[in-house]
Amino acid sequence: MTDKLYEQILQELEAGKGDIPPSSVVMFSEPLRSALNFALSAKRFTLTEFTDQLKFKRGQAKRIAELLIERHLLNLLPRPGKEETYYEISSSK
Predict the structure, then answer these.
(1) How does pLDDT run across 36-48, given as a tens digit for each residue?
(2) Which residue range forms the structural domain that includes residue 63?
(3) Alpha-carbon gap, residue 52 to 29, rounded angstroms
(4) SS (H, E, C) the chain
(5) Which of 9, 47, 78, 85 is the most exposed place for a label (fewest CB within 10 A)?
(6) How many Cβ atoms sit within 10 Å of the Cβ of residue 75?
(7) Under a CB-based contact definition with an 8 Å cutoff, are residues 22 and 73 in contact?
(8) How far apart are CA 15 and CA 92, in angstroms?
């Protein structure tokens, strides 16, 4: 079931072409909608936190984050250490 949800989310993200404004996160299905609501309230979060919110494998969560960066909803933050990847909601929206 988790792989099916993951594939559905990938299709949703890959189907769109433009930027995703923060106000549009409600259009996504669960669990992405809840994970993005968490991200919006946290402003800055780790890949581990995002993975936990999605309840997907780490590599799957990373791929989703990469698509969200391409769609300008997330920014990848410079890593002070190599243990963790940090993201923030794009402030350009």
Answers:
(1) 999 999 989 999 9
(2) 2-89
(3) 17
(4) CHHHHHHHHHHHHHHCCCCCCHHHHHHCCCCHHHHHHHHHHHCEEEHHHHHHHHCCCHHHHHHHHHHHHHCCCEEECCCCCCCCCEEEECCCC
(5) 78
(6) 15
(7) yes
(8) 22
The residue with tokens 């250490």 is 81
Which domain CATH number covers 59?
1.10.10
What's the token pair of residue 79? 């890593």
**The two structure tokens encoding residue 81:** 């250490």
74 within 8 A of 88, measured Cβ to Cβ: yes
The pTM (predicted TM-score) of the whole model is 0.91
pLDDT band at 93 (very low <50, low <70, confident <90, very high): very low
| pLDDT value of position 91 | 77
What CA dihedral angle connects 61, 58, 78 and 23, to 10 degrees?
Answer: 20
Number of domains in the chain: 1
